From TrEMBL:
Keywords: Hydrolase
EC number of this enzyme: 3.-.-.-
UniProt xrefs under Gene3D superfamilies: HAD superfamily/HAD-like, Putative phosphatase, domain 2
Pfam short name (any one): Hydrolase
InterPro entries to which the protein is assigned, alphabetical: HAD-like_hydrolase_sf, HAD-like_sf, HAD-SF_hydro_IA, HAD_sf, PGP-like_dom2
Keyword field contains Hydrolase: yes
GO molecular function: hydrolase activity
Protein name: HAD family hydrolase
C-alpha cells in the first residue's frame, strides 16, 4: 500500500466553477445580517470552512450568536444554484486519467454533504474517485493540515507519494503543512503569485491545462510503484 500514489483535489473553484457563487451567497448572507464586507474580501476567504470564514471576515472576537443564522442564509442562497453548477472543462477527464494511471483520487473539500453531492453530480466522475474527505471529518478545516492528512489516511498513502490540487491559499497552506506537494489552479480567481507564495510547486490555468501538461507537472515526479 505504501507505494500507492494519491491525487488529492479541492472541489470548489478547482474542479467546479463555484467560487463566485459562494462569494455572492456569503456577501448577501452577511448583508442580511447587517455586516458590510466587500465582495473582494469574501472571494479571498472562499475555501475556508464556514466558521473560519466568518472569523476571517468578521474577527474572532465578534459576537458569535448570529453565526448559525449567517451560515444557514449562505446555505439557502447557494442551494438555489445546485441544479446549475458546472464543472470546469477537463475536470472529469483529469480525474479519470489519473485514476487510470493508478492514482488514488480523493476529493478534499470544505463543502457540506448536500453541497458535495451537487458538486459530484456536476463533475460526473464518481467512477474515478477512491474516496472523499470533508471538513466535517476533522477537528480543524483548511488551512490546518487535518483534512489533507485525513484524506491520506483514507487511502493509506504517505505524504511524499501524494499531490494536492487546489485554487486557494488555504488549500496551498493545508497541503504544505501536511507535507504534500501542491499544484495551484488559477480558475478559482486567486492570482498565481499568491498561490506560489503560499506553497504551490507549479500553477496552471485550469483542469484542462493541467491535464494537457500532466507529463511535465509535479505528478510526473512521483513514480509509479
Amino acid at each position: 500500500m505504501d507505494r500507492d500514489r494519491a491525487a488529492l483535489f479541492d472541489v470548489d473553484g478547482t474542479l467546479a466553477d463555484t467560487n463566485h457563487l459562494h462569494a455572492v451567497a456569503w456577501w448577501e448572507a452577511l448583508r442580511q445580517g447587517g455586516h458590510r464586507v466587500t465582495m473582494h474580501a469574501v472571494h479571498r476567504a472562499i475555501g475556508l470552512p464556514g466558521g473560519r470564514l466568518l472569523d476571517h471576515l468578521l474577527g474572532q472576537d465578534r459576537d458569535r450568536s448570529d453565526d448559525e443564522r449567517l451560515s444557514t442564509a449562505h446555505d439557502t442562497l447557494y442551494g438555489t444554484y445546485f441544479e446549475r453548477l458546472q464543472a470546469f472543462d477537463g475536470a472529469a477527464d483529469l480525474l479519470r486519467k489519473l485514476a487510470g494511471d493508478g492514482w488514488k483520487v480523493v476529493l478534499v473539500t470544505s463543502a457540506k454533504s448536500r453541497e458535495l453531492a451537487a458538486l459530484r453530480r456536476a463533475i460526473d466522475a464518481d467512477d474515478a474517485l477512491a474516496d472523499t474527505a470533508t471538513s466535517d471529518d476533522v477537528d480543524e478545516g483548511k488551512p490546518a493540515p487535518d483534512p489533507v492528512e485525513h484524506a491520506l489516511s483514507l487511502v493509506g498513502v504517505p505524504a511524499d507519494r501524494a499531490v494536492f490540487v487546489g485554487d486557494s491559499v488555504w488549500d496551498m497552506k493545508a497541503a504544505r503543512r501536511a507535507g504534500v506537494t501542491v499544484v495551484g489552479l488559477l480558475c478559482g480567481g486567486i492570482p498565481g503569485a499568491d498561490l506560489t507564495g503560499a506553497g504551490a510547486a507549479d500553477v496552471y490555468d485550469d483542469p484542462a491545462d493541467l491535464l494537457a501538461r500532466l507529463d511535465t507537472s509535479p505528478f510526473a515526479a512521483v513514480p509509479p510503484s
